[in-house]
Amino acid sequence: QDNSFEQFIINYCNEKLQQIFIELTLKEEQEEYIREGIEWTHIEYFNNAIICDLIENNQTGILAMLDEECLRPGTVTDDTFLEKLNQVCATHQHFESRMSKCSRFLNDTSLPHSCFRIQHYAGKVMYQVEGFVDKNNDLLYRDLSQAMWKANHSLIKALFPEGNPAKINLKRPPTAGSQFKASVATLMKNLLTKNPNYIRCIKPNDKKAAHIFNEALVCHQIRYLGLLENVRVRRAGYAFRQPYEPCLERYKMLCKQTWPHWRGPARAGVEVLFNELGIPEEEFSFGRSKIFIRNPRTLFKLEDLRKQRLEDLATLIGKIYRGWKCRTRFLLMKKCQVVIASWYRRYA
């Protein structure tokens, strides 16, 4: 019920993961249709980049304000941190605080004076500022690290490498928030180099019990996980896309004109192939470099036809092999019969 600094940075990580989900599914997919010259009506969706900026902006972000308070000389408390947030973030549409002098929240009794609220992608979350400054400092005193490094126990010594006199850094150690922000940035960079697949888990109830389905809870998760926008994009778009070369290579055995070798451009070969198979024109579109198939059942049909064709080819190969084997055996027996007959006539 009481969210503090730990929950704040966890929710920040969730926002970044949601942002990359939006980038790679909703935004990237619609931009691909435009790049490929496919006729497309843009589908609106909420981009949570504005929330990520509220938290991680280097000048006006909440983490930057927290670090500034931790480094500022003089008396620093959680209340001074909240006061700074109220000054810097007062006009931000996703930040709420009764102390920000914003007329919308002055009389909001559900929002205590010592708290602020962020309208995250998945809904509003209220944070208690108590402990934010101390938890963000997370200081391990330098002399304690040095004492641990001098211990005789090898494990303890290995746990405190910063105590090594040769590696002592007189600079102030980074705050917990800045370390977490750097870790999240590394994670995002790593994910952007991959081709991730997403599995969205829906929690059916809050009791962790079987056979209980809370419809309101499920609808809330579907709405705030961005699944509605994703489904709209998927239903309006194409379920499958593939460059022309691998598509032709995979399905060329389904058409006599493309099997075993197609001597022209790959796109022309795919056009001949789809026309030969009689696939309705509304089920596919030709992009600049890829073929787009709208409905999964069209792809399933292609795979079924390919499977049947492979079985037919396997049968044909087996038939030819058995015929060759029988002919070879027959010719060998015939040759042996001629040799035996010639030797028999010689001695008869």
UniProtKB/TrEMBL annotation:
Entry's family note: Belongs to the TRAFAC class myosin-kinesin ATPase superfamily. Myosin family.
MF-aspect GO terms: actin filament binding; ATP binding; calmodulin binding; microfilament motor activity
Transmembrane region(s): none
Segments for region (Actin-binding): 184-206
Lineage: Eukaryota, Metazoa, Chordata, Craniata, Vertebrata
Keywords (A to Z) from UniProt: Actin-binding, ATP-binding, Calmodulin-binding, Motor protein, Myosin, Nucleotide-binding, Repeat
This protein's name: MYO1B protein
GO biological process: actin filament organization; actin filament-based movement; endocytosis
Residues in Myosin motor domain copies: 1-307
InterPro entries: Kinesin_motor_dom_sf, Myosin_head_motor_dom-like, P-loop_NTPase
Keyword RNA-binding: no
One GO cellular component term: brush border
